[in-house]
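re: that chain from earlier
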Amino acid sequence: MRLIGDIAEDTCRASVATIGFFDGVHRGHRYLIEQVRAAAAGRGLASSVVTFPVHPRKVMQADYHPQLLTTCDEKVALLAATGVDHCMMLDFTPAVARLSAREFMTLLKERYRIEALVVGYDHRFGHNRREGFEEYVRYGRELGMEVLLAQAYQHRKEGSGTEATVSSSAIRRLLQEGDVAEAAEYLGYDFFLEGTVVGGHQVGRKIGFPTANLRSTDADKLVPCDGVYAVRVALEGKEYGGMLSIGRRPTLDNGPERSIEAHIFRFDADIYHRPMRISFVRRTRPELKFDSLDALVAQLRRDEAEVKSILSL
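^ sequence. v structure.
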């Protein structure tokens, strides 16, 4: 996949494109991109995705924290895996926000040589998002751009046969409730956090459960709700099973700061300041306050047995 920024029109191949923020690059996004690729193949054109490096609302509202499913780099990597030819990274500025739908489509046509635009079934763009598909078709006809309506994606849930609408906001709600397994079904992969291993309070090592504390790469990335999770941990090209605690350590009472601490099974090495990726498999319980350190240790042993069973370790 070629990553394209703010470029001159003569350096870009003519393409069929779709546009969106694509947070999480979930199953619905990938279904849309499949339609773009099929339309491009049928017209002998390249396939493209137009997206933004920063959430549009954050550009307009500096104190907004979007609770992202993916950082920009993670999103680009997931988009590349779809097989799309181009990812056009358009800076969303106040000037872009003021463009009408027709003006925005003109920009796509002239700057990026987009010959056909595939519009999501519920997607609107342009200032105030007042116009819809019929207006886009009319503007496209005037500009020499074909406008196609994408088919909506309905996810058939495993085991139940029922259908569900997949959206980034629905996945966010699931993660905020701790339902990482359902979120993974919608995403098409396990939700993950990436960051650096940092020092902690060293209490875990003293009680037989040493932990690697993760500092997330991006403060805007969503962290699932507090509790204990079965996870897979990627370190230096290897993957390990582990159990993860997210919360404020109420039993230890060592500060209000929220921590992300992974106890990695069958692992003992100094990994401070190393990159680490944590993929969530299942939440096993909420964060609890215990009457004593011994009670906490007893529960951690039960947690370890449960998590190893979930991970088939």
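DSSP finds ten helices and 14 strands in the chain.
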